[in-house]
Amino acid sequence: MDELKNIIRDIPDFPKKGIIFKDITTLLADAVSYQRMVDLLSHRYIGKKIDKVVGVEARGFIIGAALAYKLGAGIVLVRKPGKLPSETFKKSYELEYGTDTLEIHTDAIEKGERVLIADDLLATGGTMAAVVDMVSSMGAELVECCFMAELEFLNGKNKLPADKVFSLLKF
């Protein structure tokens, strides 16, 4: 795991002063590291009968689509408002300074489907908590929320179901 962690670069003072941004593009650009990360995540879910993988805009699409392919599941996109063409279910949630909204197609998940939610990074957990609420409201069975990486010091895991969070890399 250290090999994967070490390929992720730190960008100081981005997006604002005092923040050290974990830039995953270096891992994604390295074919061997990207394949290893996808393989390690997907092996956790093989045989768990995942119907759909939900990818959260935008970097969650990169992780979610690869997992869906490996697991033989469908991919469902959660997007910012106005980006999905059909009828949507909206969920607004609190941010540190204000609110944000996400959307999912109302017909993207059927009641009882087993769903894995995927994103690149777990930070404060607010966005993922909103996605968990959306998926649960649609009648899905949440298998787990999976992340390529987690910033443990932000305690985002505390906003999610306790036994439903997996992070491959922890910082």
**What proportion strand?**
25-35%
What share of residues is helical?
A: 25-40%
How many E-type strands? 9
Number of helices: 5
Structural class: alpha/beta
H and E order: HEEHHEHEEEEHEE
Largest beta sheet: strand ordering: 4-3-7-8-9
Major beta sheet summary: 5 strands, parallel
Low-confidence stretches: none
Overall morphology = globular
Q: What is the CA–CA distance across the termini? A: 11 Å
Mean pLDDT comes to 96
- Rg result: 16 Å
Keywords:
171 residues; alpha/beta; five-stranded parallel β-sheet; 5 helices; 9 strands
Short summary:
The chain is an alpha/beta fold.
Structure description:
The protein is of the alpha/beta class. Helices cover 30% and strands 35% of the residues. The chain has helices at residues 2-7, 25-29, 31-45, 59-71, 126-137, and strands at residues 9-12, 20-23, 52-56, 74-78, 88-95, 98-105, 114-122, 141-150, 165-170. The strands form 3 sheets. A 5-stranded parallel beta sheet has the order 4-3-7-8-9, sandwiched between helices. It has a two-stranded antiparallel sheet with strand order 1-2. A two-stranded antiparallel ribbon has the order 5-6. Helix 3 packs across helix 4. The protein is globular. The model has no long low-confidence stretch (mean pLDDT 96).
Question: Secondary-structure map with pairings?
Answer:
Elements: H1 2-7, E1 9-12, E2 20-23, H2 25-29, H3 31-45, E3 52-56, H4 59-71, E4 74-78, E5 88-95, E6 98-105, E7 114-122, H5 126-137, E8 141-150, E9 165-170
Parallel strand pairs: 3-4, 3-7, 7-8, 8-9
Antiparallel strand pairs: 1-2, 5-6
Helix pairs in contact: 3-4
